Request: fold
Amino acid sequence: MIRNMRVKSHFTAGTFAAFLLALMAVFGCDKKPTGVEEISSTSFPNTPDSIRVVVGDQIIVVKWSFQDSAGTIQKFNIYRATNTPTNFSLIKSSTTNSFEDRNVQNNADYFYQVAAVNKDGFESKRSEVVTARPGQFSVVIEDGAEYTSNTTVHLSITASTVPEFMTISNDSSFTNAAPQPFDVSINWAMVLGDGLKTIYVRFLDQSGKATSMPVSDSIILDTHANIVSVSENTGGAPKVAGDTLRITLDAGEIGGKALASIENGPQNLALFDDGTHGDAVANDGIHTLNYIVQIDDDVYQARVVGDFTDHVGNVAESAFSITRLTFLHAPDPVTLFDPVFDFNFSSGQIGIKLTWTESTEVSDFASYLIYRSQNPDITPDNALLIASLSARRTIDYLDDTVILNNDYYYRVFVSDLTGLTAGSNEVVGSTR
Reply:
């Protein structure tokens, strides 16, 4: 039988340092005692969570969860108390997320706590207390897994003396649970609905009397993933190369993998929930990325698309940001070819024919702006705008406003939807 309980945190190194500093304040000390260094709360690692136990015949297996993406954890300390949850002592250290305690006796109560120790020697607060009583009978769900996405699970049942019957139930009262022949392996349907599930097993003799206390094991059922929201921090304001874009995906659960893509822009950007890359709080289910806008990024009014796969493989439906992104990136310039003098024999009209390459801007093309001057080194500020063409595939123009015996300089500027422009090379045409 497994029972979970919580106890108050022990007096850590951090609280001891704070206590010494408080004493100095009371007695008017201006200096720290020799050997006492100020310790930041960030020096201590996070506390292991999801502590659980699996019991067998004279064995207790303690398991826990801990995300160490930064690789700073050196080991885990396992503390144990016997009979009562007091006077815990360190019994072992482990470099993995589990520990087998074989120094136990059946039908005795044992209490455990786990703490993480980083490479600097700082130890976290101890975890919540878990209780276990080893015995001759046990049930293990899905080989001791913490989570499952299956509503029907596999039970491994052990007994040193084989009973005649057993009853299995999804509640401790065994309501409507019918006896069945004992078996060491069986599939069992849990109650529907995500969350912590506990399965109970009671062993019976031939007359139907219980031969031991009921045993149980727990697992978390997780059958679907969900995205609460996807957001970005521009508020609709344009960004340029070198700016920082913060993307946030709230998955509503810890663990798993979150990705973000920008429509017609960067794809499958990894988001983080480990306190890095702009993430404010580690392991809170909110995945974040501080993305540096690249010089080639070119999007206009694009949404952020979020995707999430949880730690058991459930895939959430994609979600979109409400606001839209614009990355200001000047369009690629076109190449302007040498002008050709044009003369219409029927009308006597003269002109200069311009041609250029087609703009590569597709999604945010706005117009071709054609500037003319009788002086070189054209800019939009010192030249005359003679035409604005809104069709991207239009790549020629006849300037029929010229007069004889003159030289004319030209440049074609590509303008995008954000108002950025890029000018072509400069050419000169003559009517002489």
